[in-house]
Amino acid sequence: MESIVLKPEKLDVDYDKESDVLYISVGKPKEADDTMEPQEGVVIRTRKGELVGITIIGLRNYLSPPSPRN
Q: Deepest in the core among 36, 38, 52, 66, taking most CB within 10 A?
């Protein structure tokens, strides 16, 4: 797996409630030149090896408590 450089900056966060998608950008949103999806619904966006953003599709699935087992 390639390494990703993260330079501490302000995070820009936007949530689309209707689509249930969370967008996190490092600094102001920038266009990515590469993306990877380490798990379904999570997209990591990079530009020249630096992290520019993370998109989480179906955020409610990650925040919902597990259902009780019978």
A: 52
Provide the strand spans (E) within 17-60. Answer: 21-26, 34-39, 42-47, 50-57
> What percent of the chain stands above pLDDT 90?
57
The two structure tokens encoding residue 34: 């590469």
Residue with tokens 């590469």: 34
Q: Cβ distance 26 to 6 under 8 Å?
A: yes
User: What pTM did the predictor assign?
Assistant: 0.76
Q: What is the pLDDT of residues 37-69, one digit of tens each?
A: 999 999 999 999 889 999 999 999 888 676 677
Q: How far apart are CA 14 and CA 66, in angstroms?
A: 25
Q: Which two tokens stand for residue 35?
A: 């993306």
Residue 52, classified by CB atoms within 10 Å of its CB into exposed (0-12), middle (13-18) or buried (19+), is buried
